[in-house]
Design brief:
About 0% of the residues lie in helices and about 55% in strands. It is built from no helices and 14 strands. The chain has a six-stranded antiparallel beta sheet, with no helix packed on it. Strands 6-12-11 form a three-stranded antiparallel beta sheet, with no helix packed on it. It is rod-shaped and about 95 Å long.
Length: about 170
Amino acid sequence: DILSGTYANTASMSITINNNTINLQDSANIVIPVILDQSITKDVYSVNGVIVNGSGVPNVYRGDTVIYKITVSNNGNTVLNGTNIKDILPKDMYTETEVSYSSDDMSSWSSITVADGAITFPVGTQQDGVYCMEARASYTYYVKLTVNSSTTAGGTYTNTAALYANTTELCRDS
């Protein structure tokens, strides 16, 4: 993979004729433009431990535990800096004290604070205190919540997630 940036291409030649050496060299720069190509998908992964994994819209009931699967990908050719996911939770559907998230294998869960109906958590690898998504990288996260006992029955709830990056924080190219 070639990351965005300016690259020098130098050609050189050396020839010796009658004990006289002639050295020739020329350089040219090429610029690989930044290609921004990110994607995010979000599906219901499981309800009360029963794996659904995006195979339709499941029915959920008060007190159920729902796990959403969020996959983010940086298909572009540049490192994204200061990356995080903002997950806007369905209003009045969840119990605020019972929202957590996990990465990749769900082996450990971290409680997360709900602010203004949304949770925000870092994405990628941490470099000097900044979370970064390398070019061609993909990460999977899970959000677990408990359906509130006062949730309106018979409603359809939409749960939206978005990927954000902060261009003022810099990451190293790998």
